[in-house]
């Protein structure tokens, strides 16, 4: 299934008058609209290969039909997203769910869909068929050296797949930890994990990065060996300059101040990657911006401020990715919504009057500080984001066009109603 240029053009011309009216108004209200648009056009958010199928909960999974059955079809889906919004030009693979068969043809497909290969992800949280040792009691932390070795070798294997595809980062998320007090010697678990990560680090090509992702709990419910940003930063600092912390928005304890975490990691030059999603209770993996859009804006506000302070390029300075999936929406529509929410929060952060905010902060004028941030957050920038998408060749209203073209129905008729994507 492919969306043709003429279909985008027809759709855009139908919506043109309405868009123009809204854009002209927004541009007249927004200082520096052109610079914001330029930055939005460059900004790309990677799509994880595991977000394209309907997610589940431990109670059940309700397939939406037409889910991608292999890596080629996952790339086809991301190609559709990117065609519609021009901001989803990268895919993040998870090995072994996405073992690339014929590298040349996978690369050709990526070129056809204009996709880059983002960070590759290892998986030592599930046992694979024919695996010699089980990860039931952890992988890189395991008390058994042979199990650690197996997990290290898997990560090195993942790096090799990434090299073949032209990726330049490895993301390690570990389920390692303990579920009951006393189960684990926490110091030894940390040291084993560090030694294992050091061996993986040695296998990284010079220009590569490794992202150490933390998560407070789940699947372990008493301790997690990389449980928070402090632990991740300890690993990243001990590993060396190619190691960074990865922040997943859903991986904190309730009410954690993620914007502050982001600000400090950036200050230390140790923020490497970002996983977007939203949550009400835990690692809910809901559509980005669906629950706490103001928090998303505050996080972007720190990201923009901190990246500018370090002279980092917004588009390439960090690994940007969505990490979400759930039970009830069409995954492609959900991803379009997530990308839109990210672009909107980014645009809002670019609009913050930094000089005025710095002055208000210097005077401890708390009311003015809040007025500045909330005034920006409440400015409607949707037409600015749409204009950036249009200038990049995308659709004025991606979800409307997706529905008008009956993309899901076509995917179902091509792939079948009962397909299951490999992944979570
Ligand atoms: C598990 O919580 C998780 O969502 C992590 O965030 C990883 O990034 C992802 O799964 C894929 O392994
Ligand atoms: Mn994640
Ligand atoms: Mn998660």
UniProtKB/TrEMBL annotation:
Presence of keyword Ribosomal protein: no
This protein's UniProt keywords: Isomerase, Manganese, Metal-binding
Keyword check for Lyase: no
Any one Gene Ontology molecular-function term assigned to this protein's record: metal ion binding
Name of the protein described by the UniProt record: Sugar isomerase
Organism field: Hufsiella ginkgonis
């Amino acid at each position: 299934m492919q969306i043709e240029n003429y279909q985008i053009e027809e759709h855009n011309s139908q919506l043109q008058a309405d868009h123009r009216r809204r854009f002209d108004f927004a541009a007249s209200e927004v200082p520096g609209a052109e610079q914001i648009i330029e930055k939005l056009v460059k900004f790309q958010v990677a799509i994880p290969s595991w977000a394209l199928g309907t997610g589940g909960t431990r109670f059940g999974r309700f397939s939406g039909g037409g889910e991608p059955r292999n890596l080629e079809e996952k790339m086809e889906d991301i190609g559709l997203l990117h065609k519609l919004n021009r901001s989803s030009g990268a895919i993040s693979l998870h090995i072994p769910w996405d073992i690339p068969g014929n590298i040349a043809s996978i690369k050709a497909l990526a070129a056809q869909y204009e996709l880059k290969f983002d960070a590759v992800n290892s998986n030592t949280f599930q046992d694979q068929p024919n695996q010699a040792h089980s990860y039931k009691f952890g992988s890189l932390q395991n008390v058994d050296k042979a199990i650690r070795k197996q997990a290290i070798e898997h990560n090195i294997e993942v790096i090799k797949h990434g090299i073949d595809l032209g990726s330049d980062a490895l993301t390690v998320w570990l389920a390692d930890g303990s579920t009951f007090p006393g189960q684990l010697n926490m110091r030894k678990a940390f040291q084993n994990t560090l030694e294992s990560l050091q061996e993986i680090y040695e296998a990284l090509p010079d220009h590569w990065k490794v992202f150490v992702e933390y998560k407070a709990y789940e699947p372990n419910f008493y301790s997690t060996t990389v449980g928070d940003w402090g632990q991740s930063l300890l690993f990243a600092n001990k590993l060396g300059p190619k190691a960074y912390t990865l922040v997943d928005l859903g991986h904190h304890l309730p009410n954690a101040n993620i914007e502050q975490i982001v600000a400090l990691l950036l200050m230390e030059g140790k923020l490497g990657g970002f996983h977007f999603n939203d949550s009400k209770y835990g690692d809910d993996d809901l559509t980005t911006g669906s629950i706490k859009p103001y928090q998303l804006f505050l996080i972007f506000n720190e990201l923009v401020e901190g990246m500018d302070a370090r002279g980092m390029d917004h588009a390439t300075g960090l690994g940007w990715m969505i990490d979400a999936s759930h039970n009830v929406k069409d995954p492609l529509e959900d991803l379009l919504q997530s990308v839109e929410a990210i672009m909107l929060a980014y645009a809002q952060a670019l609009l913050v009057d930094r000089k005025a905010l710095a002055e208000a902060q210097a005077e401890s004028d708390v009311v003015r500080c809040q007025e500045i941030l909330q005034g920006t957050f409440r400015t409607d920038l949707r037409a600015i984001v749409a204009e950036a998408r249009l200038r990049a060749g995308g659709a004025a209203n991606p979800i409307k066009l997706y529905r008008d073209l009956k993309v899901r129905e076509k995917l179902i008729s091509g792939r079948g109603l009962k397909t299951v994507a490999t992944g979570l």
